[in-house]
Amino acid sequence: MKKIPPKKKIVRACYIFLALFTAILFLAPIVLTITNSFMSTSEIYSNYGAILENASGDGKRFISKMVNLKLLPDMVSFSQYKTVLFKTPDYLLKFWNSVILVVPITVFQIILATLASYGFTRCKGKFGAVVFFVYIILMMMPYQVTLVPNYFVLNWLNLLDTKWAIWLPGIFSPFSVYLITKYMKRIPKSLVESARIDGANEWQIFSLIYLPTSKSIITSCVILVFIDYWNMVEQPLLFLSDQDKYPLSIFLSRINTKDIGMAFAVAVIYMVPGLLIYLYGEDALVEGATYTGSVKE
Amino acid sequence: MAFLSPSVLGVAIFFVLPLFVVIYFSFVDNPISKQYVGFDNYVNVATNMAFNMAAKNTFIFSVIAVPLAVVLGLLLALLLSTDLPLHSFLRSSYLTPLMVPSASVVLVFTVIFSYNGVINKFLQAQEKDPIDFFKSSAGLIVIVTIFLWKNLGYNMILYLAALGSIPADLIDAAKLDGAGKWKIFCEIKLRYVAPMIVFTTIFSLINSFKIFREVYLLTGDYPFETLYMLQHYMNNTFSSGDYQKLSTAAVLMCIVMCIITVVLFKLEDKYASDLEAE
Q: What is the pTM of this model?
């Protein structure tokens, strides 16, 4: 083995410390949420009741009681989960609302985007380039801009306050088209030429060459789109007036102050789908990044 | 082409065509009488206090949060690329916050930053004055923290990918020539990462406009004025049903975003073609 000079060793130790420290900071909010979900309702109130007092106080404020953030519960209890799962169907219904809104958006946005990306990749000429540029501009537009045109169309089609109001703009959102197209443009044209000679038609070129090769970027997009919509707040606030149709992402913030005694359990339940998808797709996310926004075409 | 049409049709119906209606509404007095009023609506919105406050807050947030996300993401990637032990554990921990819905962790952040929360408990123990994060300009610290927490991981893996694409012999050759670490970073790594820096800027900028979510989840419909974002303004305008104002504000933001987009993509092209010219 090569001898490492002591100065380098110290630098390395510092790097490791820094990296681990950052990792702990990043994981802390998640770990705390999980461990705190196993506290009994009364323990939650005695530890965090203070933030509720604060919320109701107005004018002169003085600190009478502080929160007591604890990593581990005094006694492991499943009472929060029991309350959520068996006594208050409201939260499960909101969870179901989230599923029913987000899954179709993710599935159909990815299908449409994959087809369109192939179209853009194979499309030569000015028209394709202009349309693709429009997609890029739209991708950059924040909700503050796009929700207004969406609203006018939905209003005109009489779809406000229905699931379609959330589904349709989500499905046609051009976000993943950009990423997938960039990736597909890197697939060598020679593959297409030889497939042509073998008599493959467009659909076969798409499904047998482009689709399998782009698997990692498509998985990346599934993850990014899913989590973005799982997190949605803006659209339901504006397009759904019936609060019974709200997804849990909005509803959770109302629980936080009202039913703090079980909020951690609801929060954990809401985290699970995202984390499961991440476990399944982390490698694809990393691999997809290799060509995302990458240079040589 | 058959592959393009479903997507193009949907984009046209839900985004592009109604955008023209939006532009039209921004030039009339109201949707019923439809009198042309020139730029009156623009003057009204541009001089509106709430709009200005929201635009200023959103601008300040993006100007602070986006460069931090871009630079710290790169530092994190450089740190990870030094062959640390537990490499994949570290990478996963930085990336996990991306996959956790904000609504789930808002409670923990409330406990940390609230007036009688963890930070003020600490400050009190040090006999310092408590900070009222949600009702002062210090609120910016909270949302920048949450933004970085969520977004640094993805920026990091984008940079890791770009760093990984640097040909190893290029660095070896530079080392043989006696180039120091700093020189290698400036002259080789930075050049290869440059297009990715532009891309992460684009990506972080898109995400910075979604900070409304966290602000909303933390403080509701009516936050303290330094946390009042453009989306709050739009929500209020939606609920008052003022189509002209809504349209005008959307058009104004659209123009600003178009300019930023064109500049950023030109930059990306430039750095990318610099590399190809090798």
A: 0.91
